[in-house]
Please model this.
Amino acid sequence: MTPALTLRERSEAEASRLPPLLARAEHLAGTVLLGDHGRRRAGLGDDFWQYRPAQHGDSKRLIDHRRSARGDQQFVREREWQIAQSVMLWVDQGASMRFASDKALPTKADRARLVGLAIAILLIRGGERVGLTGTTLPPRRGNAQIIRLAEAWAQDAEPDYQPPEHRAMIPHARAVFLSDFLGDLDEVELALTKAADRGVRGVLMMTLDPSEEEFPYQGRTIFESVGGTFRHETLKAGDLKPRYIARLAERKDRLNQLCHATGWQFGLHHTSDSAQAALLWIYRALDGGHR
Amino acid sequence: MTVIGGIGFTAPWLLLGLLALPVLWLILRAVPPAPIRRLFPAVTLLLGLRDDESVSDRTPWWLLLLRMLAVAAVITGLAGPVLNPSREASGSGPLLIVLDASWAGATGWPDKMALLDAQLGEAGRTGRPVSILRLSAPEQPVFQSADVWRNRLPGLEPMPWQPAIAQITGAETAIGSIDESFETRWFSDGLDYAGRDRILAALDSAGPLSVYQTEKPVLGLLPSFFEDGAIQLRAIRSPSTLPQEGTILAHGRDPGGTARVLASATASFAAGETHAETALSLPSELRARITRFELQGQRSAGAVTLADDSLRRREVALIAGREDREGLELLSPLHYLEQALQPTAELLNGALTDILPAKPDVIVLADVATLSGAEETALTEWVEEGGLLLRFAGPRLAASEVSRNDEHPLMPVRLRSGGRSVGGAMSWGEPKALAPFPDTSPFFGLPVPDDVRVTAQVMAQPDPTLADRVIAALSDGTPLVTRKPLGQGQIVLFHVTANAEWSSLPLSGLFVEMLERLAVSSSAKPPEAEDLAGTTWTPVQVLDGFGALEEAGNLPGVEGAALAEDPLGPDLRPGIYASEDRRLARNVLTAEADLVPVTWPANIPVEGLSIERETPLGGPLLSLALLLLLLDVIASLALSGRLRMAALAPALMLGLAFSLVSPDARAREGEGNDFALSATAELVLAHVLTGDRNVDDVAQAGLRGLSETLSYRTSVEPVEPVGIDLERDELAFFPFLYWPISPDQPQPSDAAYSKLNAYLRSGGMILFDTRDADIARFGAGSPNGRKLQQLAAPLDVPPLEPVPRDHVLTRTFYLLQDFPGRHQGADVWVEAAPPDAEQIEGMPFRNLNDGVTPVIIGGNDWAAAWAIDRNGRPLLPVGRGFAGERQRELAYRFGVNLVMHVLTGNYKSDQVHVPALLDRLGQ
Model:
């Protein structure tokens, strides 16, 4: 079997997973009413804004002859000023995200991708450019970008905890980080400070499974990370609960402080909650940043 | 095997394992339960956290206890515990097992055999040769391997007698012939008998002897007898200090010939008493049916008494020729007979024709000479069916011409005219005495008293057959009593009168005994040896040791005296013996019998019969251990939180099952009631569901059409018709069933047929419609016709005829002459009129019987003609044009007439009397 063939097969297998995710993401995005996007000012943009009489200094090329031909005056076609923001997404592809404590719950990765893709759809409909952090998928427009995003997220990463990708950040762009943030926080700090240095602000959403929040375990237990790199054995899991919860709170606190310091927004989402709530929150958080 | 606390262990050393339990406890406490592996991405948060206690999450004490119990059960179970371990056999050398094997031990026989089996098994293991000796049927003992005897155990049965002298002697010689020393185990039945000490001495000297016997008292039933109008029943037991109750069952055949318990009585033994009495008062009809009495719960020949003639009171009809001499009681021809028979027989008086239907056992004709033709025929018939006709001579018989020239069928001999008188004033010679009875006579053996004298008699004509027929003669050889068989019965003639006019025979005790021998009467007391002297009795049914009656087969006959007195044994088995018409029961216990318990010398060990079977406990213990471990699994799962779904699922299933079942059952019950209510609240026409959808729909529509028509035209207003499933639905609610025949409908079950027959008998009507009159005549063998024959074969259908012109069906509402449906012309069949139906002069109709014809059979496909759809339009075409509509109208009229006939019966038939009634009213 040639490598190309296996690649084809694999890509087809992967692609077969795309439509459901896409469809769900579209569905989710459809629940959010699009708000105002245009700047309500003439400027650079694709959409027609108004005709105005040609003034001195306007390039002749700008004259709209179809409108001008109706009368003697010459008109210039103005377009709405549309600033296409670049929004860079980072969804944790690490193994730790592929976890759900209950069959009825989606895995964290599933939820994070769903929310990520939905926000991407919304943003692209709003005319923004959406891409991934790093160099793999620079921000672009158009529906094709959604497919590419979905393809990119269809691949899982091996390591247990992935550090946020902070390379090739476009200055003054927006960023959305979706992860459980259970790995090394120093990496997150590094990424955020780097982003802040470049004027990139954004949203950090911690996606947790309910069991990670509540720690409902008892008895002698060996806890293993999904990738199997970490392991902790306890004789009385129940006794660990208060200390675990304290540690989790501490981590959330630190993330929150980091965000404050860098001008980011910190959100918390549980896979047991509805994805729509997370989507709305992110959307509003991004929108709020615009204004 | 080691016995600890009554429980034996095959591997007792394994029990030492129990010592390890405390250690196990400590280990189990120390070792934490196996960890659960869980995926948990937030493990990074846990890294570095230490457990507060170095000791593990402890297993709960009850779980530990559960596990310890399981382990203990395993250890104990593997150690091979045995409840009631049998003790090791002691002794060696040959083993002689002596069984009384009498009826007294039959009740506990299975226990005895079980113990014997166990002992034989033990002897087999130790290799001892064994012999078994039954004292009631001794045989030469043969020492064989115990296994051989074990195979023969089922053949060992108790005998219905106790060892008598003959058997004791036989057993003694058998024991004496064994020339080595042996151990003896004697299974005693608990009753003493003569000669037991001789056996005991012989056995005791031969080697060690131990005795096994049950402590339960032996129960027996003494022969019953009839006294004071009731059957006196006495039960007896070997002495016991406890009060006890015995139910005595009277077995016999009911009028249908089925063996059953006819009556029962309870006899109560007071504490310390050995006798219990009770009485059973039964009508003579029922009493005569009793064949045996039996103590309930006892299974021995001693607990059974057989009923014989002493319980059976024969019915004797007394008919005299002369009833005109009022006041002269002692001269009445029947007086002495009445006196002789009163205590032992039921006497019937009345006219011969009235008595004969009552089927008496005996009819006595005292000096009756001529009988009317009808009487004679009836009497002959009765004798031929087994009756005993007992005739006495007298002046009328002597004077009559009966049996003078030709032998009269109801006379055993021809008679000379006039008879003779001897020893009278006008005659020579002495009054004659009786000659001893010949051995061919039923009276053989009866002592002849000297004082019986005969002064007058009728004389028999010498005939070639005379010698055979004489059963008693006078000293000069003239026949006194003659007899001849007729059919299954016999005719006996006493050549003297039944009163003391001609002889002193009726005054003597011999007269009563003769009547007894002739089975005219039966004695209430058991007969003595001299009563039975000279008779031979053949066994009819004999008892086995368990008290079951079996046919005697070709067992030899028994002398009468021996039957009365000899002890029971192989030659004289208890049972029913017959001689001529008499039946005598020889019971195991005689009236004077006493049950004496056996007393054993103090040096002989006596043990009970109860054996406690070895019960291995290993299996149950191991199962218990498994169960405990299963519990442990569930408990461990529950503790570690892995049990949620597993536990919920069965509970959910159960709940689901309950919720599914109960409403369904309730619904079904309600359905039955609804059906009954809807079927009876209003008149409902019904059709039988054939399973053919099309036929059923047409039948439904047809009955709907008929119901509509009825509602319009008559006061009968049926509601929506229903289809009937013969297997399921009750038919009694419907006065009328329409049954269309389709060739492939299923044959109803037997239950359905019995329901249908009950329906027909209780006044229901079924209209069978083969629906094929267009292609076949009735019974011409069309598929539907053949199916109808199959379907109707098990039905209780009376003879049929085509509807006669004056059948009430032709005029119950409309006047009709033919009965078209969708087809026209085929015959319609109804129950045939009785053959004696006659047309009364001046009346248009015959005066027919009552009742509704249960079936009407035709093939005109009426339902199709009646059928309407929901809008009331005819569903199917009938004929063509106006003629077709006329035919449909006639079909409706037939339907109306039919329902009227069903509902009003022969009301219109009664109208035949109207002219007569009017006529009478006019006067």
